[in-house]
Amino acid sequence: NAGVTQTPKxxxxxxGQSMTLQCAQDMNxxxxxxxxxxxxxxxxxxxxxxxxxxxDQGEVxxxxxxxxxxxxxxxxxxxxxxxxxxSVYFCASSPGxxxxxxxxxxxxxxxx
Amino acid sequence: TQLLxxxxxxxxxxxxxxxxxxxxxxxxxxxxxxxxxxxxEGPVLLVTVVTxxxxxxxxxxxFQFGDARKDSSLHITAAQPGDTGLYLCAGPHPMKTSxxxxxxxxxxxxSVIP
Lengths: 112, 114
Known about the structure:
The complex is a heterodimer of chains A (112) and B (114). Chain A is mostly beta strands and 112 residues long. Chain A contains no helices and eleven strands. In chain A, strands 2, 4, 5, 6, 9, 10 and 11 form a seven-stranded mixed β-sheet that branches. Chain A has a four-stranded antiparallel β-sheet with strand order 1-3-8-7, with no helix packed on it. Chain A has strands at 4-7, 10-13, 19-25, 31-37, 43-51, 54-57, 64-66, 76-78, 87-94, 102-103, 107-111. In chain B, a hairpin with a 6-residue loop joins strand 4 and strand 5. In chain B, the strands form two sheets. In chain B, strands 2, 4, 5, 9, 10 and 11 form a six-stranded mixed β-sheet that branches. A five-stranded antiparallel β-sheet of chain B has the order 1-3-8-7-6, with no helix packed on it. Chain B is an all-beta fold and 114 residues long. Chain B starts with a strand and ends with a strand. The A-B interface holds A 4, 31, 33, 35, 40-45, 48, 50, 56, 58-59, 90, 92, 94, 97-106 and B 2, 30-31, 33, 35, 40-45, 48, 50, 88, 90, 92, 99-107.
């Protein structure tokens, strides 16, 4: 069982570039979420989905887009990268909000 | 202002000591989850507590959910270096319209010195 797979593990972008962070899970979980983690600020929710075709904004959605065309995949798109988006990004999945999340190993993104 | 507060922010103890870390809110949560995160890795779920007053044990770790479901504690007995990491509490947003959002506290960074 692979769990939650995130790619790439590391990425350096120039300001203004766009990119997609990939996330896939093989546990048939309905819930998937994207978080960013910055020193001293814990995990902040960017976007989340409660099933295929359904997405909603979290605490810090600006500058990011998501889509959920299948249960398995939940890509995160950075539209025009800014230095403030330098962070570690985690994708996670869960059967439901009371069940706890399984996390991927993260993508470390640097925007220069 | 964060919905979930954690204390202490940092904790450094000697191997063999006992410790307790706290997760607090002014809001009622339907459940709370505890995670441990090691450097360079994603958080790993330790436990979910659902019922007010509930106590769960995981080897040397004891988790308690407050009677009013506004707080939780994690007690570690005889800490070992392998317990070192960032301990995070999380739960579904307390507002019914935002229930599907799972939010996290800022974490307690624990260092156990051999």
